[in-house]
Amino acid sequence: MTTTVLGYPRIGPDRELKRATESYWAGRIDAAELERVAKALRRQVWEGLRDAGIAQVPSNTFSLYDQMLDTTVLLDAVPDRFRHLDGLDAYFAMARGADGVPALEMTKWFDTNYHYLVPELGPDTRFRLPEPGGIKPLVEYREARELGMETRPVLIGPLTYLLLAKAPQGFNTLDLLNPLLEVYAELLERLAGAGVQWVQLDEPALAADRTDAELGALQHAYERLGELTSRPRMLVATYFGDIGAALPVLADSKAEAIGLDFVAGPGNLEGLAAVGGLPRRTLVAGLVDGRNVWRADLPAALSTAATLMGLVGDVVVGSSCPLLHVPLDLDAETGLEDGLRERLAFARQKVDEVVLISRALKEGRHVIADQPSRAPQNRAAPNEIDATRTDRAARAAAQRDALRLPPLATTTIGSFPQTAEVRKARADLRAGRIDTAAYEQAMRDEIDRVIALQEDIGLDVLVHGEPERNDMVQYFAEQLDGYAATEHGWVQSYGTRCVRPPILHGDVTRPAPMTVRWTTYAQSRTARPVKGMLTGPVTMLAWSFVRDDQPLAATARQVALALRDEIADLEAAGARVVQVDEPALRELLPLRRADHDAYLAWAVGAFRLATSGVADTTQIHTHMCYSEFGEIIGAIGALDADVTSVEAARSHMELVADLEAAGYAAGIGPGVYDIHSPRVPAAGEMATALRRALGVVPPDRLWVNPDCGLKTRGYAETEAALRTMVAAAREVRASLG
Ligand code: GLN
Ligand code: ZN
């Protein structure tokens, strides 16, 4: 019976890694200085875990950018376009692109907000280990050993690596399993040769639905690695959910230890019982939540652990997943409201919980007797509200009369460039250099400029530009009761980019209108309709740490009710169009298909609850910034918005046809240009995209807009692109006759 965690935050208590890496990119420090910072951070993590009482400390959880990228480099699976570079230049070029060489694609790591760099594999991929001095897990293992610590190097498991890679059409990355296993075999032999006792092979891909062929590959992989005569003992770590049919496969393998997540995957307990337990094996029991910020329910964790002890040879108490997804240290927070701090645990506190659970198992329950218990929170009774609007056609007719928009109406997604002046005004207000009146004047000046610009360009439905918003979730979280902000609660999102998600800890209510002042001010400057702009309930949850003492569906309803009141106030103040953004709708989709319907039911229900209180004449828009809808395509229509804008510039409009085929029958605004790049496409390009869309959608349902908000762009290119967009819309409109 010992203790471990599967991974730990690597950015440093004060985001030292971000600062050092960005200084390196800017040429202010050299590679040796970057390495010195990195080495100090690794040491801090290892010694911190050891001193907290963790018996089995992981290593190779550090990364200069991303652990999948590290694996790609370790395996030499580097795409040809980076081959002329080496060392850190190649590494960071893969992460960020360099001199016209595009970076690897970046995508979400399972259902988290962490993004990894997607390996590009194909028939020509040849895996190969570097010279021993370049084998990162080996180097870091030795580094820890010099500090007197025996650690467990963490590797991405071979199956997960292949399943997360992309390949040319028609090529199955699992065809590379055998050559990949040869390299893993060599790696394990080398690690054993260096004295490594245990390795951790992360296979989170097992928490999602897997085909028989994939389970066969899993079986084959660990049979091949298991039979090696010289290798460290293997911990196959799974996390983010139940592993279902993969559990019997791992139970039959030669892995000496298996890691199971009992927080996100409570079904793993049954699964374990169903295979008759693991009587001669070690189980790393994920009992402390690595994904959320709440203190563990220690008595409950203890009884799960006690049950597990009857099922397996040995229990190691652990975190449910690597602690990468929670902030580092609660002790750094000084401004949390009373009663909230006692309910929270960040990475450092979670480590203490792991140690405490293990001690209580050995010494008895009295060990946790003086720990605060998790106080139950109040639950607001859900109001019974009818969340249906009237017939879509009747609404469309009413809105046609009220808004009098041309076919192919033009608009934008909400934000305009966040200029240096806007950011400075915000910083000045925070630092007390200017007062609220001066700040608000600066915002009104910016709104004036954005409205005048849009009128001059000739857009049909205007926006106020969102200058007052730092972030689309935080802005609302700061104004809603039931949400708290942290000062230092940074979590890595990708590379050097860190976010500070707000904490949704109690019943959500709206003490006062949140956006009405700005929207009505903007509307007072123009006769054209200005869109009210809100963040939807699903996105408000997806980008926050959310209370876990009631179902997400119940929390989403509370947020929806607050938004419903906000929309009513906007409408009463004269708003004729309101947009409710849901860019995270797809992101919260559960990993397993069996859970999709239940999720979509509450997600769609929350959106409708927020938006169904308006008059027929009020037009509801929504926005999603991705174009591959796949399993949620039916849900887009079920939201029952009057207009949906989506990303389409890079996917060439196929999406519009897919949506129509799925029965979508309302307004649709497929983005006609890509806002991720400063390039301004020609009017002809945009017109072609619109004509293609008109092949499947009638002109009165087609909207013309960019792919997403403009806040990361500069004014010059934004103005040029929007003028071109309006010209393209006019050209196509004219040709309609
Ligand atoms: N209204 C937001 C904006 O324009 C939408 C952002 C998003 O989709 N992520 O910035
Ligand atoms: Zn977007």
**Distinct small molecules:** glutamine, zinc ion
Largest sheet: 8 strands, parallel
Poorly predicted parts? none
Which bin fits the share of residues in helices?
A: 25-40%
User: What is the gyration radius calculated from CA atoms?
Assistant: 27 Å
Looking at the structure, the CATH topology of the largest domain is TIM Barrel
Architecture per CATH nomenclature, i.e. the level-2 architecture of the largest domain = Alpha-Beta Barrel
Task: Describe the oligomeric state of these chains in a short phrase.
Answer: single chain
| DSSP, total strands | 22
Structural category: alpha/beta
The average pLDDT is: 95
Strand content: 5-15%
Give the topology, please.
Elements: E1 2-3, H1 16-25, H2 31-52, E2 57-59, H3 67-74, H4 87-96, E3 106-108, E4 115-117, H5 136-146, E5 151-156, H6 158-163, H7 177-193, E6 198-202, H8 212-226, E7 233-237, H9 246-251, E8 257-261, H10 267-274, E9 278-288, H11 298-309, E10 312-319, H12 347-363, H13 392-403, E11 409-410, H14 420-430, H15 436-457, H16 474-477, E12 481-484, E13 491-494, E14 497-499, E15 503-509, H17 516-524, E16 531-535, H18 537-542, E17 545-546, H19 552-572, E18 577-581, H20 596-611, E19 619-624, H21 633-638, E20 643-646, H22 654-661, E21 667-670, H23 683-694, E22 703-704, H24 715-735
Helix pairs in contact: 1-2, 7-8, 11-12, 14-15, 19-20, 23-24
The site of glutamine (GLN) has 13 residues, from loops.
Keywords, please?
737 residues, binds glutamine, 13% strand, 24 helices, alpha/beta, binds zinc ion, 22 strands, five-stranded parallel β-sheet, TIM Barrel, single chain
